[in-house]
Specification:
- This protein is an alpha+beta fold and 403 residues long.
- It contains 15 helices and 14 strands.
- The longest helix is centred in the middle third of the chain and has 34 residues.
Length: 403
């Protein structure tokens, strides 16, 4: 079905094709370019499946190389948000697994046909009105085109970022800990860059599985840009897809997919962080460049055990995971830092302070012996000195070292 009409109705919605404007119950919504193109393709193939490859050709063409899977998923997600639809219980857009999408409601063209016979004066009047309208449209299109060109070449200025929870693409809910751990790791890596303000993990985790748009999230968190993506682990291989989006005006700046061995996960996290800082034009100091480049291989089993411990709500199970991590790799410093966190938490449960704090301090000493630059270890040591030792100057020194 072709769409020569300017306005098309489907279900309770009307779409103005010329203005890329969606109307519903008197409300008008301007659709971003890619969700609009997806909707047009679905309308043109009413009740038919539009394949993912056809949508790729429609959105990017054959000569553009992007991670179209992530881009298409994002475009469909935004379109469903605009329609108030969901992938789980679709009313308008049906997902055909591993194939494409189908519009579920009938489509109707609204433009009425012109009468066959009109008098000469009416015809002349219509010609003049049409010419005037075309002139106005041309001027408007010129203004829009100029604005788009200006927006395209406007320098990117992102000084604050939110890393949204990475989506777990494994299909296994038990792997959520891995995607959450990767989210926290990216936040930590980007947080090492001083000019960049990065929102904390606690603040962004509330948006896990949210239907809110990027501009809305950015307004709520007061940030200039958002990083979103997905993570998947298969055996000892890990795949991460990330994209950087400017919030206002909303603009896709960069996307990339990475696949590495799990033992190189720390280097991968640093590589992603460096790529993002390059895109937002943050100039790294030599010290920051060194920190982001100094990532040694890790024991995959130890790394995963620490991630499981962080996400485990049962303290005894978390402790068991940390013991496993240290058994897998006694030289993995982050395991000892998490062990110190566990012992300090025990002071709020059943273990006496005079027993728990020395154990926490011993774990931190071991961590700093293995890696004197580990910021998390200095932060916890400063916490212990402040709350348990009342060593104000010592706490201040460790917290400054953390920063």
């Amino acid at each position: 079905m072709s769409l020569p009409a300017q306005t098309v109705r489907f279900g309770p919605f009307e779409l103005d094709l010329r203005a890329a404007e969606l109307r519903h119950n008197g409300t008008k919504t301007r659709l971003p370019e890619q969700p609009f193109q997806v909707l047009v393709a679905l309308l043109e193939h009413q009740a038919e499946v539009v394949t993912r490859e056809e949508l790729r050709q429609c959105l990017w063409g054959s000569d553009t190389f992007v991670d179209f899977e992530q881009g298409l998923n994002t475009a469909v997600k935004r379109l469903r948000e605009a329609l108030g639809d969901s992938a789980e219980k679709p009313q308008y857009i049906e997902t055909v697994p591993r194939h494409g999408y189908r519009l579920m409601v009938p489509v109707e063209r609204l433009d009425s046909a012109a009468p066959a016979i009109v008098d000469a004066s009416a015809r002349r009047r219509r010609i003049w009105l049409t010419a005037s309208a075309l002139l106005l449209v041309a001027v408007a299109l010129g203004v829009i085109w100029r604005q788009q060109i200006l927006e395209r070449f406007r320098p990117v200025k992102i000084e604050s970022l939110a890393v949204l929870p990475l989506v777990n693409l494994s299909g296994n809910p038990d792997e959520e800990y891995f995607a959450d751990g990767m989210t926290e790791a990216l936040i930590t890596e980007l947080g090492k860059v001083n000019p960049l303000r990065v929102i904390s993990r606690q603040s962004v985790m509330q948006y896990k599985g949210t239907n809110k748009t990027v501009p809305q999230i950015a307004r709520e968190l007061h940030v200039d840009g958002v990083v979103e993506g997905s993570a998947m682990r298969v055996g000892d291989k890990v795949r991460i897809t990330t994209q950087l989006i400017q919030a206002n005006p909303e603009r896709h700046l960069w996307s990339e997919s990475y696949q590495r061995d799990l033992r190189d996960i720390l280097a991968l996290q640093s590589e992603v962080a460096r790529a993002i800082t390059n895109e937002v034009k943050i100039k790294l100091t030599p010290q920051e460049q060194t920190r982001l480049a100094s990532a040694r291989p890790v024991n995959p089993d130890a790394y995963q055990a620490v991630l499981r411990a962080k996400s485990e709500k049962d303290s005894q199970k978390a402790f068991a995971y940390l013991q496993q991590a240290i058994a897998f790799d006694p030289t993995y410093a982050p395991a000892y830092v998490e062990l110190a966190f566990y012992y300090v938490d025990e002071t709020y449960r059943a273990r006496p302070v005079k027993e728990a704090v020395p154990l926490a301090r011993a774990a931190l000493d071991k961590a700093l012996d293995l890696d004197p630059t580990l910021a998390e270890a200095h932060a916890m040591l400063g916490y212990i000195k402040f709350w348990f030792d009342w060593d104000w100057s010592g706490a201040e020194a460790d917290l400054k070292r953390t920063v």
